[in-house]
């Protein structure tokens, strides 16, 4: 090894010794001049120790947070630079070792996902397509040039575009036709992946869609076919029951029973026809202005007659707050809720109906003091023909389709149904309509200077009817 004076001088250790000797000699000279050599030597040692402790503290802070780059002095600067160089070298070697493994994992993942029977499309920033599997090629007709294209340019279904914009996580899948084949139906779901990416999953549900369509057609056709004979039976039985001379006959009770059951079957047929129509129509209910307060008052009169005026029914409604939708469907839904409350509330019971609006939209609440519903039934109560108490439903003449119709009507109007109930404590059925569905009617006095309708105010208004 050759002797190199420049290398020795550039060594941090050598410079550290020279600086320490110079400082010690200077302080020692001062100590000799003042006659306090021992005190000054202790001061030199303590100062040097304190300086090293300060450098150690900076090093510890850097190890705790590598983003902070402290300023070191003397030999500590070389120690820090050597440590940083070694760490970068280790990190680079580790990265080179991990890269082949990561590439292998990514390739295996892409190969596995490509073989899935469901279509998968990775969406990045601004919902642009970044990657897709082989099934997506077939179901969506994707090509190499489509990479980077916005998914809304490929799938132009209005409901898909709306939900993609408004819902970050899809709770319910969407059924929509394939963009390459209108006869192919897809069940689409969007899931979040990472911070700014989402995964579109799609499954070919054409067979299930056709089976569902066959079921709907069957129910509609059978209901239409049953309507005529039931009408004839009802007509004949009513004609016979109107004759006083047959009341004494032994088969009169049988005739009365035939009439009651025919009427009940007629109600079921009417509900099935309404439900079939709701399912077959597009999710675009009529855009007429529905005066909810007036409809509730009319339903109240019918409910009082239904309950032989044995219930106390109160209506609290905002007369100016209206809904844009289908008046006949909404009346059917509201009447089903109120009539159910009458059926399941004992005489002298109370039924309170409230219609109001706030920042979250419009809300219709039907509260009763009836028998209540056990929690285990609440998740299934809107299913077709599901009955909490079969015997009581038959006694009240229920069809088992009322709440199913309510749910479908609300879904078509972008609304939701919530239910709160407990045995012996009554029930609360609430319909929640989005703000976009609401309109507030301008009073007549102000109509000259304003348009007839304006968006709902952000304050809940209410008037006692």
From TrEMBL:
Domain Histidine kinase: start-end pairs: 221-437
Catalytic activity annotation: ATP + protein L-histidine = ADP + protein N-phospho-L-histidine
Pfam families for the chain: HATPase_c, HisKA, PhoR
Transmembrane segments: 12-31
Keywords, in A-Z order: ATP-binding, Cell membrane, Kinase, Membrane, Nucleotide-binding, Phosphoprotein, Transferase, Transmembrane, Transmembrane helix, Transport, Two-component regulatory system
Region named Disordered: 442-465
EC code(s) of this entry: 2.7.13.3
Positions with biased composition (Basic and acidic residues): 442-451
Keyword Nucleotide-binding (UniProt): yes
Record GO terms (molecular function): ATP binding; phosphoprotein phosphatase activity; phosphorelay sensor kinase activity
Keyword Kinase belongs to the record: yes
Main EC class the enzyme belongs to: transferase
Listed GO CC annotations: plasma membrane
Compartment list: Cell membrane
InterPro entries, sorted: BphY/WalK/GraS-like, HATPase_C_sf, HATPase_dom, His_kinase_dom, HisK_dim/P_dom, HisK_dim/P_sf, PhoR_N, Sig_transdc_His_kin-like_C
A biological-process GO annotation: cellular response to phosphate starvation
Name recorded for this polypeptide: histidine kinase
């Amino acid at each position: 090894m050759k002797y190199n004076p420049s290398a020795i001088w550039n060594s941090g250790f050598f410079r550290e010794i020279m600086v320490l000797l110079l400082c010690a000699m200077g302080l020692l000279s001062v100590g000799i001049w003042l006659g306090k050599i021992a005190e000054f030597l202790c001061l030199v040692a303590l100062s040097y120790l304190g300086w090293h402790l300060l450098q150690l503290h900076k090093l510890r802070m850097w190890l705790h947070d590598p983003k902070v780059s402290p300023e070191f002095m003397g030999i500590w600067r070389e120690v820090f630079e050597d440590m940083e160089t070694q760490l970068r070298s280790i990190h680079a070697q580790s990265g080179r070792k991990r890269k082949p493994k990561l590439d292998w994992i990514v390739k295996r993942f892409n190969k596995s996902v490509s073989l899935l029977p469901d279509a998968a499309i990775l969406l990045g920033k601004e919902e642009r397509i970044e990657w897709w599997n082989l099934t997506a090629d077939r179901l969506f007709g994707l090509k190499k040039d489509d990479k980077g294209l916005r998914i809304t340019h490929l799938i132009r279904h209005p409901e898909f575009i709306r939900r993609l914009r408004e819902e970050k996580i899809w709770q319910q899948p969407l059924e929509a036709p394939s963009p390459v084949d209108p006869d192919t139906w897809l069940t689409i779901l969007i899931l979040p992946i990472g911070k700014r990416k989402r995964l579109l999953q799609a499954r070919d549900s054409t067979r299930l869609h056709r089976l569902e369509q066959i079921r709907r057609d069957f129910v509609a056709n059978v209901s239409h076919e049953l309507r005529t004979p039931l009408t004839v039976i009802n007509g004949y039985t009513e004609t016979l029951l109107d004759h006083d001379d047959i009341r004494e006959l032994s088969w009169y009770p049988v005739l009365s029973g035939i009439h009651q059951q025919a009427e009940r079957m007629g109600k079921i047929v009417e509900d099935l026809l309404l439900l079939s129509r709701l399912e077959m129509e597009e999710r675009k209910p009529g855009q007429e202005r529905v005066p909810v307060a007036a409809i509730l008052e009319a339903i109240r009169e019918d409910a009082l007659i239904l309950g032989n005026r044995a219930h106390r029914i109160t209506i609290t409604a905002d007369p100016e707050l209206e809904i844009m939708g289908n008046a006949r469907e909404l009346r059917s839904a509201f009447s089903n809720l109120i009539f159910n409350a009458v059926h399941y509330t004992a005489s002298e019971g109370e039924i309170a109906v409230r219609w109001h609006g706030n920042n979250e939209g419009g809300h219709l609440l039907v509260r009763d003091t009836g028998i209540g519903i056990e929690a285990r039934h609440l998740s299934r109560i809107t299913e077709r023909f599901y009955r909490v108490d079969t015997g009581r439903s038959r006694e009240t003449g229920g069809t088992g389709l009322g709440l199913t119709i309510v749910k479908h009507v609300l879904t078509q109007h972008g609304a939701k149904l919530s239910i709160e109930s407990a045995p012996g404590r009554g029930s609360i059925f609430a319909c929640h309509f989005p703000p976009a569905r609401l309109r507030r009617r301008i009073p007549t006095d102000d109509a000259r200077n304003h348009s007839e309708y304006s968006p709902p105010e952000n304050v809940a208004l209410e008037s006692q009817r």
